[in-house]
Design goal:
By secondary structure, this protein is mainly alpha-helical. The protein has 3 domains: 147 residues, no CATH class; 153 residues; 84 residues, Arc Repressor Mutant, subunit A, CATH 1.10.10. The chain is rod-shaped, with a radius of gyration of 46 Å.
């Protein structure tokens, strides 16, 4: 397939340009030495850091968007929450970019509209992200609170059982003590049920034998009751052990929670069967939450918001703040080194300034305002001001105040190289003139 002459010429020109750039870089490295190499490495490193800010901004915006969507989905339909989340994160990034390029004095209405939009989007993102970070940071606290809630319900029920058990045993012991006193009265013949003719006769008479029989039956009943209550105590101990296991065993929490629920049911069944024989009023067992309720995450609603804690709000604000800051810096400081043409332009324009000095930072400082003589002559300084703006945007100059700028470290090798080139040309011209004269 034949290549057209125009295409062939363009390919040749591109090859020549690329080859010339490579030769220029090699020449600069040879002539500039280690200083030029350091300048190139530093410029590439700074440019890489600025370019690296782009994926960082995207990742931060994605992280903030995920937490915002997560929190917003508690209150509205998920697909609507997704659309609003995309809008919020877009507004944060876009307004941060715009804010870096707007000056308050130039357009107050636009400036304040961008600031208000950024604040609203920032607050919305931080507020809804709070719920996700709250869930993460307070996960262990929520679990402990629910364990304590279950434990408090069980403990309150067990205390009621202890009260019923104590009153029941006390009543039985009182009856047993009463029978013992009656036996003593019957033995000494002073019992009211003893006929008058047998009063004051000491010995085991018919009344004593009858009361003794009842006393023995009551004592056997009390011993049996205490034995049965001891079995209930074993079930209570198993239940309390299950509560301790629930607090410790995070991996098998479902089984531990089921053991607690079943243990509570067993204690209730055994105790009720035992105490119901005596006609006592039985305490009501608590209804524990289900395991899904025990393990569910925070579910805030408009009427039921979780308690406020500062730490999740700070984390949510940090993510959005870094997104805003890096987005602002991406627009405020444009990346990229100077081209060959830009280097020539900057060097020639900087030479037009007349007020230079070494400031307190040991850096070369320039007064960028017009001098009185320049104002009197109506000097047009836009080319050199363009050069200053270009160097400020590329990081080669640092702004001291409204009328002064100073050289950044990466500008010195560039100026030194240009001055070296000028000296070489002057020497070459001087040598040529001397040769022409001697010839």
């Amino acid at each position: 397939m034949a290549i057209s002459p125009d295409l062939s010429s363009r390919l040749d020109n591109n090859y020549k340009k690329t080859h010339a750039m490579e030769n220029r870089l090699i020449t600069q490295l040879k002539s500039g030495g280690i200083g030029r190499l350091i300048n190139i490495v530093q410029t590439l490193f700074v440019s890489f850091l600025r370019i690296w800010s782009i994926p960082i901004v995207l990742l931060l915006s994605l992280a903030s968007g995920f937490t915002t969507f997560y929190g917003m989905s508690y209150f509205i339909t998920p697909w609507i929450a997704l659309i609003i989340t995309v809008a919020i994160q877009s507004i944060i990034v876009i307004c941060s970019f715009e804010l870096a390029g707007i000056h308050l004095k130039a357009n107050r209405l636009r400036y304040f509209s961008v600031v208000v939009s950024l604040i609203i989007a920032f607050v919305a993102s931080m507020s809804f992200s709070y719920f996700k970070f709250y869930e993460i940071s307070e996960h262990d606290t929520i679990r402990i609170e629910r364990i304590n809630e279950v434990g408090n319900q069980v403990d309150a029920y067990l205390k009621k059982l202890v009260v019923v058990k104590s009153s029941l045993l006390a009543k039985q012991k009182q009856e047993l003590e009463k029978l013992g006193k009656e036996m003593s009265l019957a033995y000494f013949g002073t019992h009211p049920d003893i006929p008058l003719q047998h009063r004051n006769h000491i010995g085991e008479g018919p009344v004593w034998k009858h009361i003794n029989k009842i006393h023995q039956e009551k004592a056997a009943q009390l011993a049996t009751l205490e034995q049965q209550f001891s079995k209930v105590d074993v079930s209570i101990a198993t239940l309390q052990q299950g509560l301790n296991q629930l607090d410790q065993d995070v991996i098998h929490s479902e089984k531990a929670y089921q053991d607690v629920s079943q243990g509570l049911h067993k204690v209730q069944l055994d105790f009720n069967q035992l105490a119901a024989k005596f006609g006592n009023e039985l305490p009501t067992a608590p209804v524990l939450m289900t395991y899904s309720q025990f393990t569910e995450t925070v579910k805030p609603s408009v009427n039921n918001l979780p308690k406020f804690t500062l730490f999740p709000l700070i984390i949510a604000g940090m993510v959005d703040f870094f997104t805003v800051l890096l987005s602002y810096r991406l627009e405020f400081s444009a990346p990229g080194p100077l081209t060959e043409q830009e280097e020539e332009l900057v060097f020639e324009c900087l030479k037009q300034f007349s007020e230079f000095r070494i400031n307190e930072n040991d850096a070369v400082e320039i007064v960028i305002e017009k001098t009185d003589i320049e104002r009197a002559r109506h000097y047009v300084d836009w080319p050199r001001m363009f050069a200053v703006g270009l160097l400020l945007s590329r990081g080669f100059l640092r702004k001291v105040d409204s009328r002064r700028v100073e050289f950044a470290p990466n500008l010195y090798p560039l100026i030194a190289e240009k001055m070296g080139d000028k000296l070489q040309k002057l020497k070459a011209q001087s040598a040529a003139q001397q040769d022409s004269r001697s010839g």
